[in-house]
Amino acid sequence: MTLRQAAVIAGFAYLLSPVSYAEFNIYPKLVVPGNIEQTVQNISAHGGLFVAAMLCYLITFLEDVVIAWALYFLLAPVNRSVSLLTAWFRLMYTAVALFAVLNLATVYRVLTTPDYLTAFGSGPLHAQVMLLLHSFRYDWSLSLVIFGIHLILLGCLIFRSGYIPRIIGILLVIDGLGWEIDSLQVYLFPNAHLGFISITFFGELVLMLWLLIRGWKVQEPSRS
Q1: Among residues 50, 175, 199, 206, which one has the fewest Cβ atoms lying within 10 Å of its Cβ?
Q2: 131 lies in which domain range?
Q3: Would residue 221 count as lying in a domain?
Q4: Residue 135 to residues 13, 142, 162: CA-CA distances in angstroms?
């Protein structure tokens, strides 16, 4: 694979990721924080929409595998071993995130199978759904610690590459550190107010735009 092909594949895999649609459109419509009764009613009444959200997450995490593969080839000329390690960190993150989505699948099965309501009763059933929804968030949040390491390594590789702007590498390192702080806050400093950390999460957006606009012009590094 050429560097141009790797750049374009990674760029389009980023672009076609539907996670933002699930996160900011579907999920907030169905899951009402602090109101599990309304949440259960929403999911039960709009099961197809809930399945669409699950598919968006699933497609996104599968595309992460493609991104890890393409970025490995794109940055292998910088340092093949570190590029491979960087790809593995993204793959580990993806594995944990996919495991987290299984909680949503269980929520769907619990709420669409009448036998569960009969066996548990509404109160215990709602508690089970709440636990599963929270587990989805907790597991995905913890996986972002691994994702943050991936971004830091990715940023370092890009900074050293010579064929991708160094500023993108710097932004990715900042992005990775932001994910580390945000994901570990609940465990290390739960009382801190760190909402401003979200301003660091645009490094991958800048990388995606560069891959789509300039990636097809990447020059193969000269071999001495």
Answers
A1: 199
A2: 3-140+203-214
A3: no
A4: 27, 10, 42
Structure tokens given for 118: 């009969």
Q: Give the chain's domain count.
A: 1
User: Are 69 and 87 within 8 A, CB to CB?
Assistant: yes
Domain assignment present for residue 195? The answer is no
User: Looking at the domain assignment, is residue 122 inside a domain?
Assistant: yes
Length of the chain: 224
Q: Does the residue 162 lie in any domain?
A: no
Would you call 48 exposed, middle or buried from its count of C-beta atoms within 10 A (0-12, 13-18, 19+)?
exposed
Dihedral-angle region of residue 121 (phi above 0 means left; psi in -120 to 50 means alpha; beta otherwise): left
- Using left for φ > 0, alpha for ψ between -120 and 50, and beta otherwise, residue 163 falls in alpha
**Are residues 155 and 181 in contact, defined by beta-carbon separation less than 8 angstroms?**
no
Q: 168-202: per-residue pLDDT in tens?
A: 999 999 999 999 999 998 888 888 887 788 888 99
Q: How far apart are the first and last CA of the chain?
A: 20
